[in-house]
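FYI - complex with WT7, inputs then prediction.
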Amino acid sequence: MGKEIYYPNKDFSKQARIKNMCEYNDLMEEAKSDYEGFWDKLAKEKIDWFSPYTKVLDESNAPFYKWFIDGKLNVSYQCIDRHLDTKKNKAAIIFEGDRGDKETVTYLELYRNVNRFANLLKNEFGIKKGDRVVIYMPMILEAAYAMLACARIGAIHSVVFGGFSAEALRDRIEDANAKLVITADGAFRKGKAYMLKPVVDDALSKGCDSVEKVLVVQRNFEDITWVEGRDVCYNELVKNQSNECEPEVMDSEDPLFLLYTSGSTGKPKGVQHSQAGYILWARLTMEWVFDIKDNDTFWCTADVGWITGHTYIVYGPLASGATTVMFEGVPTYPDAGRAWKMVEEYKINQFYTAPTAIRVLHKTGEDEPKKYDLSSLKVLGTVGEPIDPPAWKWYYEVVGGSKCAIVDTWWQTETGGHMISPLPGATPIKPACATFPLPGIMAEVINKDGTPVEVGEKGYLCITKPWPSMIRTIWGDDERFKKSYFGDCVKDGKPVYFSGDGAVVDEDGYITITGRMDDVINVSGHRLGTAEIEAAVKKHSNIAEVAVVARPDEIKGESIFIYVVLKEGDGSFGINAELAKEINSIISTEIGNIAKADTIAVVPGLPKTRSGKIMRRILRAIAKGEEIKQDTSTLEDPSVVEAIQKAVNG
Ligand code: WT7
């Protein structure tokens, strides 16, 4: 299967923006021969500037790169106002609730709703340019309004995924020193109401001194506690606001948003994105990777709490004037045909989801797609984790009817938008392969010293030139930014961006991602740091030592496997379901349910080197049930390996 090649659909190619590999190569050559000229042309064409930039790229303070120096713009203007002349009555967002309730918002309505929201932020809460606003929201229209309203007035939003716990929310509020939290009473999932506001109350019960007010959108109208003087109800208040709100004039490099993500060490990092570079790439990738056209309806199933939701539910589709679908529920409720029913009903043209969702839909409803008319589909996308060939094939044949390109998009929170992906009208696709870097993106698989790797050999996946939508810094921690991303690899003597991923290049130059090379785990496309989970587990009073590793999982991609050494035990070792319950309850309080472990093993000790470093490779191999091939002679106590194996395998 690895060598099988799927050529683009000819009819599709004819109408695509990038029609063949020659066109792709030309763009790439253009970028290579005049990098700034390449981006200059695109930025002039794709952004409506309030006033032009004076310089394309400033590398003087690398790696703190700056793009489109002194340019002035507003991202909400790019996403909304810009379209009013030609598209005011076009659907901007189609919302579908968990229980089937529907609402379509035109560009003109979006304009008014965002302006009213922005006025509310300014007038009622005194939010100004540069203030941080945390958005802890379900997948409802107001989440998109809130983001765009912040963009309109120049406030920096930090969306926190609704599945994160109170502790995780508190950490993020405190790190950003947020002035306002926007939330909802709750929402609906699988036919039932669930709550968010109590989590906010819990988060704010300690610390969070910077927070002045909490704005609450009523969605499920369940009873909640209202804190006098702090909590404000959105639904009524917003009606009194004016429909007009001047967009704030923003500098290209002003921060647009922060989005926290996990690293291999320490607390989550507040990834800081810019205005101009980010929105340019959000729009361009919609055009190149999804080939979005004026009459297309685009559906990305992510949550707005992740970068995929930022770039491909809100900013990218709206910046390109498309119709974007926002879905509150899950694709398997009320049955495994839900997603396909929606594709049929809205005549979805591009469908973008995670391999985990594809695996679940494949497993629970292999023949479901056949019950619906999916002929509107043109491009299918995957993101967040490697997809396995069987899931890929089902997606291609059964969902796409063997006529849609599958774009396996590799990127990260830090990159803002796609970096490596097939182009649906041009790239001959190898299943489960991200293929080639996008035009202008200098992604390379190299050794640490910048030399290229041999064909088929794993190397460091780096981006060797700055790009417009790149992370600008880690909020409040420039040093960590430099160390995390520019501390590992160099090329031509200059530090280059290292993604944390490994990759291989085949004899045709195709890039396949092999996964993280650091201690980051990917569960169902969610990125989790082992260090964070370990810190949570240590809060259990009887845990002396802990090591968290990933184990391959058929559905989730990876699952969490935890080894613990007890302070006081009864001398018995092995998989412990009782303790797993206790530990998972702590994890769910400290981080959220997404970080819960599948397996917890009590072991007599951990494999450590003489300098005290835990050799996770050994623990990963044991979790997988593999033979230990690694050299264990450098361990402080090599006999511990056998003892752990005995504990795990019984
Ligand atoms: C990590 C980034 C990109 C938005 C969602 C996740 C993994 C991402 C792919 C892909 C294999 C992938 C990488 C990356 N990843 N896309 N197409 N194939 N792996 O964003 O939470 O920042 O995670 O997701 O390991 O580093 P994120």
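The CA atoms of residues 150 and 157 lie 6 Å apart. The pocket of WT7 is lined by residues 261, 306-308, 383-386, 408-413, 434, 499-501, 513, 515-516, 522, 527 (CB under 6 Å).
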